[in-house]
Specification:
The chain has helices at 2-6, 12-39, 44-63, 71-96, 103-118, 129-151, 153-159, 169-192, 203-224, 234-237, 239-268, 277-299, 314-318, 321-330, 338-359, 363-370; strands at residues 231-232, 302-303. By secondary structure, the protein is mainly alpha-helical. The longest helix has 30 residues, at 239-268.
Amino acid sequence: NLSSNAIKEPNWLSFVKYMFYFIPAWTIWADLKDFMNYYFNDDLLQKFYVVFILALLLIYDNNVEFIFESRNALLTTVTAYFLARITLAIMLIFYSIYVFEHRTQMRLYSATLIVTSSCWYFLLLIHSTAGIIVFSAIWLILEQCCFVICYHPWTKKKLGLTHSTALNIEHEDERLSAFFIISIGEFLLGIVSGNALSEGWNTKVAKGIALLIDAFIFLELYSHKDGSIRATHAMRRSVSTALGYIYIHLPLIASLLIVGDAGADLAKLGEPYEEERGVVFFFSAGIFIALCALTIHPLLDKPKDDPKDHLVNRYLRIGFRIPVGGIILGLAWTEWKIVTLIWIDTLLLMLLFVYELFAINPRSFYRANCGQV
């Protein structure tokens, strides 16, 4: 919903607003995800907690788009976000009574949640768009820093703790991957819902098929990472790589949501498209950001392969993602028809995919199928 609204007036300001709308929603989801990761038992209290958070997200989503035009919408949005975070603090304090091993860490994070979430009400004293954006940027960064500090091993060491929280890596990876797949679904929703591509064979269908191929390629790039046969997962490697793995999903998913919605918008359009140039930039820039994130994503793992296992080293296997993204971004300045532009972008992604398909295969594959390599 946030990404769909962002492309109604596609410009840099709407993109910045979109990110500031998206990050708090992501944060609320991440709070719930992490809490369930640590303390899931599926009792009645947790069921009510989930429903309550979903209700707050519903209120947040229906008001956040209007915070610059309506003070009532701003108050409602801030209150929904405040209640979501303060509820987590209350849950942590309540659970700390019984989970004594994590008591210090839980109460420390609860204290930061109470302070930081309460300070969001200062937004009501700001009346300029720039002021709201600057304050929000500072406070969103501060909130993430509080989370990192509270759960970092350095804090455990300084506080002399013998126990601390630990992620269930399989659970965390499963949730992040599920969110990624939902963002891929955005490519298809826009071109299917309401028979958006019209009847018969036409250019809209051609553009829709191109978007379908794009979605498939992004899913494959995410799945095969850098093609390592054996690797230590980023969340098992170190604290820094674990945090990097979690946070790289934020720009990755946010950008793919934009690509999916912008692509669907372009697919529905006729020609020419002069009035929709902003949508083209959203589409191309989203692909560029996604490919940058998909380059960092596999590099956070630690490969255990022998260099002789592959014909091409890992950096060359995935090293063309950013250049291809840069070319696609550059093509946004061309005057081509939409169908031409989308298919050129898709062909570039297909070339990238085919190259990686062969580059990631180990030497043993070629020995078995093509003789000595």
